[in-house]
Design brief:
With 133 residues, the chain is of the alpha/beta class. The protein contains five helices and five strands, in the order βαβαβαβαβα.
Length: 133
Amino acid sequence: MNNSSLSVAIVDDDEDFVKLLTMVFTKRGIPISFVAYDGLEAIDLYKKAVKKPDVILIDHHMRIVNGIDATKQILNGNGNTKFIFLSGDRQVKNEAIEAGATAFLNKPAGINEIVDAILNLASAKPYLQTSEE
């Protein structure tokens, strides 16, 4: 799968981080399906998306609905989208994986690490764990 045939959604409440990811993905030819700044917005945008994102990059700590609850609600309707969970709280790793996350990256994760995780998941390569504690 080449970069332009996959789509990514970014769900994070850090607007500067979202801007950085958007810039990097655009430069690398990775289409962005949608951007959400909290879990509730992500659930809504996912439901409305005509083409569902291949990968959702999602933060844990967000207002209204956290990343774990958003992941569970989104996967309840579709098991095809893969989730990369981002969190500075390593204690939520197991809960994130149980909720349906395919990969867990510790914040602060490097841009190349994030892009590699997306490309590996999108190409169906096994990518269960990255950052070690």
